[in-house]
Amino acid sequence: GQNIDQPTEMTATEGAIVQINCTYQTSGFNGLFWYQQHAGEAPTFLSYNVLDGLEEKGRFSSFLSRSKGYSYLLLKELQMKDSASYLCAVSTGNTPLVFGKGTRLSVIA
Amino acid sequence: KAGVTQTPRYLIKTRGQQVTLSCSPISGHRSVSWYQQTPGQGLQFLFEYFSETQRNKGNFPGRFSGRQFSNSRSEMNVSTLELGDSALYLCASSPRRGLAGSSYEQYFGPGTRLTVT
């Protein structure tokens, strides 16, 4: 079966760094995506990893370890506008994307 | 370039009715996927269409169906609506279909919020 786990909720302080973890067990692996979804809006693409290692894009970085079935999304210099749900998704080749249930991040002052 | 559009944005139906949702992908995108999003289950894959053919189907009952037209626009239909069908239905388009050893980024539309009473 397909299983993607991530924490349900996290809270962090404005200006801080937060790491959102994702573990996956899927039949097949073609890459791991992170999406951001603000309440009432569509998910928007943040990052994509297919090889092991860290991908950095501005304040956002994403890490992948295929042997461990593990990824994390790192958000630096947190801003209030970063309060959103963060979705981890795996492309398996059989379905376009298998999503975790999302991590709701609250950024507080 | 215009993004993915979905119509209608909001819909209220009663149990037993049927509903049709529409999705227009980004121009040039040939792959369209549909997802159901609920607070308890998150985003769940419904089906994927590429070049007017259903390529993949998720674990949903036969009441859920879809199709894709030659211009890549897609519709999904839900018949005999149940209360549990209340959800946000998201459509996503991609320029190409994922093949073994490759992957692709999906662009999501704003969704259709369906409420079944």
Which secondary structure elements does this structure contain, and how are they paired or packed?
The complex is a heterodimer of chains A (109) and B (117).
Chain A: E1 3-5, E2 9-13, E3 18-25, E4 31-37, E5 44-49, E6 53-57, E7 60-65, E8 70-75, E9 84-91, E10 98-99, E11 103-108
Parallel strand pairs in A: 2-11
Antiparallel strand pairs in A: 1-3, 3-8, 4-5, 4-9, 6-7, 7-8, 9-10, 9-11
Chain B: E1 5-7, E2 10-13, E3 19-24, E4 31-38, E5 42-50, E6 53-57, E7 64-68, E8 74-78, E9 87-94, E10 107-108, E11 112-116
Parallel strand pairs in B: 2-11
Antiparallel strand pairs in B: 1-3, 3-8, 4-5, 4-9, 5-6, 7-8, 9-10, 9-11
* Low-confidence segments of chain A: none
Series of H and E elements of chain B: EEEEEEEEEEE
Characterize the main sheet of chain A: 6 strands, mixed
Helix content of chain B: under 10%
Question: Tell me, what's the shape of chain A?
Answer: globular
Structural class of chain B: mainly beta
Low-confidence stretches of chain B: none
Radius of gyration of chain B: 14 Å
- Compute the number of strand runs of chain B: 11
Gross morphology of chain B is globular
Q: What's the SSE pattern of chain A?
A: EEEEEEEEEEE
Q: What is the number of helices of chain A?
A: 0
What fraction of the residues of chain A are assigned to beta strands by DSSP? over 45%
Distance between the termini of chain A: 41 Å
Main sheet attributes: strand count, strand direction, barrel closure of chain B:
7 strands, mixed
Biggest contact: A-B, 25 and 29 residues
Radius of gyration of chain A, in angstroms, nearest whole number: 13 Å
What is the count of β-strands of chain A? Answer: 11
